[in-house]
Amino acid sequence: xxxxxxxxxxxxxASTSVVYAEEYxxxxxxxxxxxxxNTPADTWYDPPQMSILVGDTIIWYNDxxxxxxxxxxxxxxxxxxxxxxxxxxxxxFNSGRFMPxxxxxxxxxxxxxxxxxxxxxxxxxGVIVVEKLIPDFPHDATGAKVEFPLLQxxxxxxxxxxxxxxxxxxxxxxxxxxxxxFYDPQTNSNLAAMKYNFIIFQNGKEIFRDDGLxxxxxxYRNFIFSNSGSIIIRIEGIHTTSxxxxxSVTVKGxxxxxxxxxxxxxSVVYDNPEKITHEAYHIKPAQRLTTYxxxxxxxxxxxxxxxxxxxxxxxxxxxxxxxxxxxxxL
Length: 330
Fold this sequence. Notes:
This protein is α+β, with helices and mostly antiparallel strands. It has helices at residues 2-16, 243-249, 255-260, 289-316; strands at residues 23-28, 49-53, 57-62, 71-74, 88-94, 103-107, 112-117, 125-131, 150-153, 160-166, 176-184, 189-190, 194-202, 205-213, 218-223, 229-240, 263-269. The strands form four sheets. The protein has a five-stranded mixed β-sheet, with no helix packed on it.
């Protein structure tokens, strides 16, 4: 029984693990030491190019008959060494010389493209492509998992702002829809006709700003990011357009308080492995609900006014006399 319980706990812990770092092998085949075309080695490093994720490890095995290095930088190419080009290291990693039958490993903690070569045999070249690990859950800029909708209060605690976005994992060149709503925390009711500024900062720089007017307590903005990096979504200057409503959600009620009514949400944008460009898009709704309300009012009022005009015209229309010109009274 105890064994069964312990085994169940082990399975539970194993199932909750999300990500494991991987190890990959690159072989230095026999004949890599020879730059000639008709050597036993088809490639100097096998495979010559490998794609991994941040945190993964590459192990190089020396199956050749001479010592080699694994040094980051640009090699000479197959014949460059004949022109005194022996490669250019960039000091990102360097194995030093390791002999036949030995191996050397390196764990990549940064994303990017890393060419490498052998300083002893500079025609030997390879490439490691390291991609960022993209999580499968929404999170803030610190990496902490979040659940939608996110909730923030303005500094005066008068307005509650909820925010969510779709899709939940933000990638470059992919349309993201930010949806947000405003509430009165005292009554838990929607606040309509809220004016505000919607701002996005990325890597410390403002990349987008737009003013807004919410309807029925909510609004949205679409945006496509061209670059990866941490972001801040700020909704600031939140206030209503109604004087009566303003009194119900304002403690001090001056202009300075309105300017300080802002909330910040954070997240991270990842490089999209499937897209490198994007097309034009609509940032916000082409028509707001106020437009529809105005059209509805026009559609209802215009026929009503015409009906009333016709009704009163009929009532007040003068009656025609029965006397006709030339008629003789008896």
